[in-house]
Amino acid sequence: MRRIIFAGFPAQVKESILRFPVALLCCLALCVIDFLFFEDFLTEDSQDNILKFNLLLPLGFVLAVGLRIFAEDRRSRAWRYAEWSVIPLLTLYFFLLPDGVYYSFEHHPTQYVSYAVFCITALLFLCLAPFSGTKQPLLFWRYNLKIWGRALFSFLCADVFWIGLMIAIYSMQTLFDVDVHDAWFGHMCLFCFLMLGPLLFTSGIPRASEINKEPVWNYAVPRIVGQHILLPLLLVYLLILYAYGLKIAITWQLPDGWVSVLILAYSGGGLLVYFLLHFLYLTRKSKIARKFGAGFFYSELPLVALLVAAIFRRTADYGMTENRYYLWLMAGWLLGVSLYMICTRGKSLRAVFISFGALALLSLVGPWNAFNVSDCSQRNRLQTILAQNDLLHDGRYRPNTCRTINDDDAREARKVISYFRNKGNVSCLQPLFTVNVDSLYREHGAALSSHLLDLPAADGNDEKTIQRYFSLDNKERKSVSIAGYDRFTMYEYYSWSTPDCPAPKDSTVAWLICAREGGIIDLYRDDKLYKTVNLTEALQSLTTLDWDDNQSSTSYTQDDFSVVIDRQCKLIFTELSAKLYDGKFILKDAELYILEKD
């Protein structure tokens, strides 16, 4: 109990820092970076890099802890420095991540899925680190119980400490009128969860040689949670799933795809209960644990068959996607684990951890990886749709004036093209078309499928109605050059403030701008139309900076965004927002300088 009540905590902190320097350095770096961002020392232009740090440094923490534990009982001294390899690995990963990750998972699924797999693998490595060669299942179970229990305990302590600090700060504000900046609430959160929590966690990680010396007082907790709380819930899930399976057998219909979520929830909960009660199963100290350990994996076999039927239905109708790929992978893994546990009488938990991590890594490499398989499946799906409508010639799309694609097939074709467009991987469709798909995408963006297949608008829901907003903000520029001009006027345009064109006759404003659809603006001077300017080309050149991201809202920076009207006048935009609708630009708001010559 000494450690739990924080006796000797300073000594534990010192030992933790000396034992896990790289892991705690990752936490410190992340805390400092987020602190600087909250205090506005870092600009919004750094958001993408800040997100990369927030992704990579937690991964580095887990990996560094795992490498340290793995190296502690190694005889070779070289292993003592294994954890320092995390720094160059994270640096390499940082530069491999593409720009624009900050904005959306939808446009970078490969990066986010890969990151999730790396995190899962790092966590599994931490669970297996000190037991790469041992065959002591009870020792392995005790270590993992200690690791996960300590992680939960550290999180709860950090949470309670943070809430206590927040109440104390709020009390000082209320009772003593102390002026405390709101940012301090965020700073306390960073300190508690990025510094205090990791210190508590690492200070309670036992060495492999010390695990057998740990007290067994906390074994009552997994027994109560697993046997008296989770196990009854699992039985309810099992009855629901078996009743649904019976309904499927009677009606002879393929199951709904949503049932896969319930099956995975039951499987995950069952594996958690099996882990919590594993020591009772091995030591045969509980009849309930023995019966559950013997029966759970048998109960999984019919549910895996139901899961396969549900996934098969969705895959047959809509092709393979990354989500369905991982559902197939989970179905195969559950079947393999169930058969393994039945044949070996469930004595090895390590096989569950190792097989899961190995399959996760294999899903990212080779021609069988999730993204390659999904892309090929969706492209073949589009090829089948075009072939059924007699729109393919020598394997490439060719419009057929005698036939038009029916509405159902047109809807499915749009979905396939949207799948590649959202991923920013439209080049995968190039083998099916003679036109340059990338160029067409840069030109039409969200309306790609309508222009690629010459499809008409569909019930007002066609992609042409999708709006893409973008903005330019150069307000931080310290100066604007007016060289070559005699005077300038700063002008602010808001779409809601000048709804009518032409300008009112009694206007007291020397200049007035009125925007029209298609990126065209009418520039009035002294109540008279001075010039009609087409901004389409300028706006197009601006958005091509990262047009492929196809984000619904994007912000740009450009040192000099100006438009020369004629020899006498020039417009310099410091702020601008517009939208792209059906391939046409519409100016929303703008701040600009109007430069004139006499």
Protein model, in words:
This protein is of the alpha+beta class and about 600 residues long. The chain is about 55% helix and about 10% strand. It has 18 helices and eleven strands. Strands 3, 4, 8, 9, 10 and 11 form a six-stranded mixed beta sheet that branches. Strands 5-6-7 form a three-stranded antiparallel beta sheet. Strand 6 and strand 7 form a beta hairpin.
Structure in a nutshell:
By secondary structure, the protein is of the alpha+beta class.
Task: Note the main attributes of this structure.
598 residues; alpha+beta; six-stranded mixed β-sheet; 11 strands; 12% strand; disordered N terminus
SSE succession: HHHHHHHHHHHHHHEEHHHEEEEEHEEEE
DSSP strand tally: 11
Strand coverage percent: 5-15%
Distance between the termini: 86 Å
Morphology call: globular
Q: What's the oligomerization state? A: single chain
Helix/strand class: alpha+beta
What fraction, in percent, of the residue positions are helical? 40-55%
* Count of alpha and pi helical runs: 18
- Please outline the major beta sheet: 6 strands, mixed
Mean pLDDT: 78
Query: Which consecutive residue ranges, at least 5 long each, have pLDDT under 50?
Result: 1-5, 457-466, 498-509, 544-552
Round the Cα radius of gyration to an integer and report it: 31 Å
Give the SSE layout.
Blueprint: H1 9-19, H2 21-38, H3 47-72, H4 86-96, H5 109-128, H6 137-176, H7 183-203, H8 220-251, H9 259-276, H10 278-283, H11 287-318, H12 322-344, H13 350-362, H14 370-388, E1 392-393, E2 396-397, H15 407-423, H16 437-444, H17 448-452, E3 467-473, E4 487-494, E5 511-516, E6 520-525, E7 528-534, H18 536-543, E8 553-556, E9 562-566, E10 569-581, E11 584-596
Parallel strand pairs: 3-8
Antiparallel strand pairs: 1-2, 3-10, 4-11, 5-6, 6-7, 9-10, 10-11
Helix pairs in contact: 1-7, 2-3, 2-7, 3-4, 3-5, 5-13, 6-7, 8-9, 8-11, 9-11, 11-12, 14-15
